[in-house]
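ingest -> validate -> predict -> emit
validate: passed (alphabet ok, no gaps, 337 aa)
predict: started
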Amino acid sequence: MKRILLFIAFISIFANAQTARGVKIGYIDMEYILEKVPDYADAINQLEQKAQKWKQEIETKRNELNTLKENLKTERVLLTKELIEEREEEIAYFEKELLDYQEKRFGPKGDLIIQKSVLVKPIQDQIFTIVQDVAEQRKYDFIFDKSSDLTMLFAAQKYDISDYVVKKLTSSQKREEMSKKQLKALEAKEALEESIEDNPAVAERQKILDDKKAAREKLIEERQKAIADKKAVAAEKRQKMLDEREAKKNGTVIEKESTEDQNKTTTPDSDKDKTTENGNVEKKLTPEETRQKAIDDRNKKIEERKKALEEKKKKLAADKEAAKKAKEEKTETEKKE
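emit:
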């Protein structure tokens, strides 16, 4: 009956959509959202521990009942009619007690259902509140739950706001630990993101601004690198001048010059060009060339690291999309069955 009424409501809504502003519809997957909430995982874990304990108690009672039945079967020929009836009444009492206990723990109104409701309901209420806020902010007319009894034969991915609800839920949990200044900054950021998502023109403009910002930061980085290189060269020259001045002061200039002349005539193996195993001559680099080579190597490593991070992000996004698609296909298959 509920589905029929919803279907009739949809017909009337879409019949009037031509003259109205149009209907904005979205949907969520409650099961997907709950899986992303750490509190829900903790609650389910606690419930599973209790359920496991109850199952062990039921198994113990069932073993005791089987023992009574086996004993009666073995001793029946030795017992009087009155004792047999007494044993059968005891067994019937144990069977009823076992069934009652199973019903109490795992029945439709049992402890498992009740405690699950107690543990999960606060989280669901929080999600419902966030969904209502999202509906008001983004002006949705309807938001459905894909995992509910309402059958959805098809739903376009662009209308799925589950990830947005998870984001808002995580944000609301973080708000409790933030200061007023941090909250204000977060609200401004969220408002900007929402305006970008709702308006393609704003998104394009924001992309242009981000590109300009990235180019500006790159230019600043290159300038800082050039300044640092100039400072290093100047520091090296200054140190060389100080060393020469100190040498003149100590009267070691002639000795130094003679040493330099000797080095020119008898150049050590360390100052000569090195020959590799393949017979190629490896030219010895100057200090400036060595420093530049180190800078180039460092920049190359940074670029490789950035590229690896980008590939990792793409892989994570692809895995997430594949998992979500597989879950949707599984849900559709289960509904069809």
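The CA atoms of residues 230 and 236 lie 10 Å apart.
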